[in-house]
């Protein structure tokens, strides 16, 4: 068991896991999936198609006939990580197909690695399949290679990411995701709900709803209506969340912008249909900084919204990410952010130091903050966030909570409460009486001890 580190990057998805062994002679494709959960879902879709065509999936480079590297282009540091992964795959295997967000800059990739077989952009599934077919022709066995009952999953079997839309209509100056992934394109409501239903039928206990802007779901479709379960469902996040909440699994909402209609989700949380958890990218609190980011600048009104959410659902957990050291950020602006955090008392917080990203409009802003100042502000921000987290967790000692089991080993069970998303939040550890537990179990515990980010408890009942 391990404790949750305080500086975990909030843009990363869990590491992909594989369980199937290839049959003798079966063409095998390796997969390296980098970046956020949205990219992980893209990887799952690619592998599901390949698996249906008779390919085996390899968890590493060795023994694979070719390797797909699904890249991240969110920050320059993520781009460097992607280039390193491509280079490692070339060195270990030699036959590499690149896809994902960084694939939107093919010259950037081929300039560093001219020997890659192909480069495709984000969610270009057909192009990836064509590249695989060209490198490793399929050889399906019609008696063995049947379409699996469920999609290929790169996460543990008891939870799954569910992507409800692609793209984003925001024009934040520090972000190039809309340039890479395009404007908002929402999936039909009935298609999302059918996928959710199939996942739950296959044993998934927790659905993690993701997109680039979850609360904008359906705007591009003008919130059209689709048939569902003998009635109709509107392409709107409130309706979608309500219907998913009827499936019997935990439903966790990520990347929710604080539009006014978000308040309509809170009663669903109070009723228990949706987990009382909101992941909202506030990014900053000073109005001038937010304006330079080209983001809504009503931080004071946001505090009023937070108070209203907590009044309607006292157990709600609020998670957010912030950027420190944004161009032009003064010490006074940063202090406003610290004061805002003091008042907001967010439960879970991630933080980035600002980085230039090729193509971002923020690169051209004046008064860039020196690296040592960014590091100092990050340290001070995380120190305050850690103190808030520690106090909030200490208040849970003695409480009885439901938890979901993620992993069981010889030392104990690693679990999460309703307040914890996989990988990016904390854990609850059980180190006595855990022997009968298995991943995916949802059990009741009493909290005995709290740390800065994690809890310890014992089974009750």
TrEMBL record:
Record note on cofactor: Binds 2 [4Fe-4S] clusters. One cluster is coordinated with 3 cysteines and an exchangeable S-adenosyl-L-methionine.
Native source species: Pseudotabrizicola alkalilacus
Domain TRAM: residue ranges: 394-461
Pfam families: Radical_SAM (PF04055), TRAM_2 (PF18693), UPF0004 (PF00919)
GO CC, alphabetical: cytosol; ribosome
Protein name stated in the entry: Ribosomal protein uS12 methylthiotransferase RimO
Span of domain Radical SAM core: 154-391
InterPro entries (UniProt xref): Elp3/MiaA/NifB-like_rSAM, Methylthiotransferase, Methylthiotransferase_N, Methylthiotransferase_N_sf, NA-bd_OB-fold, Ribosomal_uS12_MeSTrfase_RimO, rSAM, rSAM_horseshoe
Superkingdom as given in the UniProt entry: Bacteria
Compartment annotation: Cytoplasm
EC number: 2.8.4.4
Taxonomic path: Bacteria, Pseudomonadati, Pseudomonadota, Alphaproteobacteria, Rhodobacterales
MF terms in GO: 4 iron, 4 sulfur cluster binding; aspartic acid methylthiotransferase activity; metal ion binding; protein methylthiotransferase activity
Co-factor(s): [4Fe-4S] cluster
Gene: rimO
Domain MTTase N-terminal, residue spans: 27-137
